[in-house]
């Protein structure tokens, strides 16, 4: 039986890393593979890291392609994992590429069109962790020095709007769910867990 592709999305500070840990604990004992984007171990991921830390500058279109290619490089492997029956969990996916880079000058419709043309594997479930930018920034300020995305409230507002548009479109997924993620992590997870458990029964 084909595996399931699950994606966690949301603006910086929405709680993806915390939910990922809880999801993996819930899935313990099953065959699971995780992919996080940007992939800090890849050449493209290192370029993205330098950009986020303001060590290099990239045009919005260059950003779009670098982020997209960082995801595209794993598509063959992801497809093989799914075909072998594994559960694949993604922390960010091409939705982030649209949400972020189309907040900076790349037209939203053009970004959607480019991603659609790439034939990415479609998630069985996209979990959008929705928080207000102010809440997300307050969380990030407690954790570490913020990168250029995390410190930009106006950008995060636009990114959230793009995510909500993708959610309304049910863009390139069998199912999107929006989870209010401003409550305690365990409360968020109880909702996320129910959707995943339901998916695994299908």
TrEMBL record:
CDD domains (UniProt xref): TMPK (cd01672)
Coiled coil, from the record: none
Pfam families per record: Thymidylate_kin
Catalytic activity: dTMP + ATP = dTDP + ADP
Residue ranges constituting the Thymidylate kinase-like domain according to the UniProt record: 8-188
Family listed: Belongs to the thymidylate kinase family.
UniProt name for this protein: Probable thymidylate kinase
Organism of derivation: Fermentimicrarchaeum limneticum
